[in-house]
Design goal:
The chain is mostly helical. Helix 9 runs parallel beside helix 14 and helix 10 packs antiparallel against helix 11.
Length: 443
């Protein structure tokens, strides 16, 4: 493991992660693009159902990032055998967590949604979407564990292949099941839920094949499932626990944000769903850089190269910022053409354009702030990241409520809360990194 990373090496590690992160985003984008031809109610339902699903999946994602940090530290220490033990524990814990999340969706999702959604049509369609989407949660959680293993060991190319498989399967099944092609019934929003769940299952099958046919079992001792190591389990949860809570709070807050927008009406919700889909796609490269940041920071500290951490973060911030500027340039030049991918409704297109401009501003903040935030996470100080996120999200939701409900601001104005959120996150992360208190954190 090299302790100094060039821009080329960082990109080589990050690019497959970016492709891997496209998994959920591709499914959301495909669902939105297809359901945009069905109607505003279907668009709103897929937005709310997808966000509720993601809020629960992100609890597992938080656990995966925490274990990825530990795997990265062990990889830097060249303690490869323990990586397999950590991965085995991850698999069992994530499976147990997926069962809990499935039961929550099964028993409580409809009652929860009923309390927030004003439109009866949107409520019924959201429940129909989740009826089938919830079955994918088992595979989604397993995929998180596999991703943690490959990112932590800096072998990310397998994530790219899994994502490609998932995207192709989801595209074909969306087309067939939403519109009723090739002899299948026309299922609308329910078809989108089925397609996404099956697509996640295909990625899980691919990961299992890789684990059992490559040298991973011999080199890392993965899938040996030895006796449970409770000391290791506690260590994983000590690092992962704050990140799990942080992710749950973050995505729950975004779900609440959309609940606030739902109070503004079905049209504003449809506009926001289109904007959200574009926003998530534009986020993917930045989030890819964040996973690289946390993994490489952990590897460097494991190799006792703390002085390389800040230079590494500076390099990744530069790459993230430049790539983001290139991406938003396309949005500013051809916004109407981009939005028309999701809908042919002229009114929807016109009303989404101002929101698209606002999210471009938010992305500039995002490209810098989230890298620094992930640098803090990679040091193992996950309680600090939880504190930063809790404070910023509290201000974020308060501002969103005031703008949308109290002052009844136009939808584009409500979306300015995204830029405010990332600005606050960046300032707090910068202050902590500059303090140097993270340098000798043991995990």
């Amino acid at each position: 493991m090299k302790s100094s990373y060039s821009y080329r090496q960082i990109w080589k590690i990050t690019f497959p992660i970016i492709l891997g992160l496209m998994a959920q985003s591709i499914m959301i984008t495909l669902d939105t693009a297809f359901l945009g031809r069905v109607g505003e109610v279907a668009l709103g339902a897929s937005a709310l159902g997808g966000l509720l699903y993601l809020a629960l999946v992100m609890v597992g994602q938080g656990f995966g990032i925490g274990s990825q940090i530990i795997i990265g530290r062990r990889n830097g220490e060249k303690n490869y055998r323990e990586i397999g033990t950590i991965s085995d524990h991850n698999t069992l814990i994530l499976l147990a967590m997926s069962v809990v999340m499935f039961v929550i969706l099964w028993l409580y999702a409809s009652q929860f949604l009923k309390s927030f959604i004003r439109s009866e049509a949107v409520y019924n369609a959201t429940c129909e979407f989740l009826k089938y989407r919830k079955w994918g949660i088992f595979f989604g959680f397993l995929n998180i564990g596999f991703s943690a293993f490959f990112v932590g060991t800096v072998r990310t190319r397998y994530i790219s292949i899994a994502t490609l498989i998932m995207a192709v399967v989801n595209f074909v099944l969306d087309y067939v099941l939403i519109f009723g092609k090739w002899g299948f019934p026309e299922m609308g929003v329910a078809g989108a839920g089925i397609a996404s769940s099956i697509a996640e299952a295909t990625a899980t099958i691919f990961y299992f094949i890789v684990i059992f046919t490559k040298k991973n079992r011999d080199s890392y001792g993965i899938f040996r499932f030895r006796k449970t190591d409770w000391v290791l389990t506690r260590k994983i949860f000590n690092i992962s626990g704050p990140i799990m809570l942080q992710h749950m709070i973050s995505f729950s807050s975004w779900f609440i944000f959309f609940m606030i927008i739902e109070q503004m009406g079905e049209h504003d919700l449809a506009v926001s769903n289109i904007a959200r889909s574009i926003y998530i796609l534009l986020m993917i490269p930045i989030i890819g850089f964040t996973q690289t940041t946390s993994s490489l920071v952990s590897n460097l500290i494991g190799n006792e190269e703390q002085e390389q951490v800040i230079p590494l973060i500076k390099k990744i911030v530069t790459m993230s910022f430049v790539l983001t500027l290139l991406m938003i340039a396309a949005n500013l030049l051809i916004p109407r053409q981009i939005i028309s991918i999701y809908t042919s409704d002229i009114t929807l297109i016109n009303d989404t354009i101002p929101v698209l401009y606002v999210i471009c501003i938010a992305l500039v903040m995002f490209s810098v702030s989230l890298i620094m935030f992930s640098g803090v996470s990679g040091t193992g100080n996950t309680r600090i990241t939880l504190l930063i996120d809790f404070v910023t999200l509290t201000m974020y939701l308060a501002m969103a409520y005031l703008l949308a409900v109290v002052f009844k601001t136009a939808i584009a104005g409500v979306w300015f809360t995204e830029a405010f959120y990332f600005f606050c996150m960046g300032v707090m992360s910068f202050i902590y990194l500059r303090s140097g208190k993270w340098k000798y954190k043991k995990i």
